[in-house]
Structures are given as structure tokens and as C-alpha cells.
Automatic annotation (TrEMBL):
Species of the source: Sulfuritortus calidifontis
InterPro entries named among the record's database cross-references: 4-hydroxybenzoyl-CoA_TE, HotDog_dom_sf, Tol-Pal_acyl-CoA_thioesterase, YbgC/YbaW
Sequence similarity: Belongs to the 4-hydroxybenzoyl-CoA thioesterase family.
KW Hydrolase (keyword) present: yes
UniProt keyword annotations, A-Z: Hydrolase
Protein name as catalogued: Acyl-CoA thioester hydrolase
GO MF term (any one): fatty acyl-CoA hydrolase activity
Length: 134
């Protein structure tokens, strides 16, 4: 959908690795979560404001991940995000984690907009859609 990409740098620490010295698979999801949060912040969308002012939160609904190559301790990685799809109550992100331009992990993450209290699907507010570039 969008050709604009957001890149968030990440350094791999010991705490990110498993007994084999490579990044533990679930930690890639943490890297992607942080990058999505910073992408939103960079667009001027503060998730705390969305929750407090609009009564809405974004939640991960579905994730598809391909682990292509391992990252190791002290690697400098880039987490790349782009908006792949925007619907009334959800959006999908295309994400990848790279080392020196080489893809290590690719993912598609579907994010739902839900009410803060009942966690029921809700329409993404127009002011948020506008900031997303739509």
C-alpha cells in the first residue's frame, strides 16, 4: 500500500540470545513491536493519547513470520516497517529485520483497533487514518 518505509535500528544484546548464541525467536517479535510503536510515534500518533482520548487501542491479531537467517550477539540490525493494508478497523504491516541490508526475518502483522474497555472491534478514527497517510 505505502512505499514509505520506517527503519528502527536495534543492537543485539546477550539478553536477546538463546543458549546457542543466536537471537531467541520470540525476541524478533519484540524488535518488530518496538519498531511499530516508534513508527506510530514518528507519525505523531501517541498510543497513550489514543487510549485516553479516543478509548481505543491497537492490538496484534495475527502474525506470519519467516525466519530466514539468525542474528547474533552484538549484531546491528534494522527493523523495517511499511503499511501494507488499511481497513476500517485494522491495518497490516509488512516488516523485516535486516543485517547490513540482508533480510533475516520477514513478517506480516495484522493489527486490530479495539475499544479500550471491552476489546471490541472499532473503526480507526479519521484523524489517525489521515496521519497514516490515507
Amino acid at each position: 500500500m505505502s512505499e514509505a518505509q520506517f527503519v528502527w535500528p536495534v543492537r543485539v544484546y546477550w539478553e536477546d540470545t538463546d543458549a546457542g548464541g543466536v537471537v531467541y525467536y520470540a525476541n524478533y517479535l519484540k524488535f518488530m513491536e518496538r519498531a511499530r510503536s516508534e513508527w506510530l510515534r514518528g507519525l505523531g500518533i501517541e498510543q497513550t493519547d489514543l487510549a485516553e482520548q479516543d478509548g481505543l487501542v491497537f492490538v496484534v491479531r495475527h502474525v506470519e513470520v519467516d525466519y530466514l537467517k539468525p542474528a547474533r550477539f552484538d549484531d546491528a540490525l534494522d527493523v523495517v516497517c511499511s503499511l501494507a493494508e488499511l481497513n476500517k478497523a485494522s491495518l497490516a504491516m509488512a516488516q523485516r529485520i535486516e543485517r547490513a541490508g540482508e533480510p533475516l526475518v520477514t513478517a506480516r502483522v495484522k493489527i486490530a483497533c479495539v475499544t479500550r474497555e471491552q476489546f471490541r472491534p472499532a473503526k480507526i478514527p479519521v484523524h489517525i487514518q489521515q496521519r497514516l497517510g490515507c
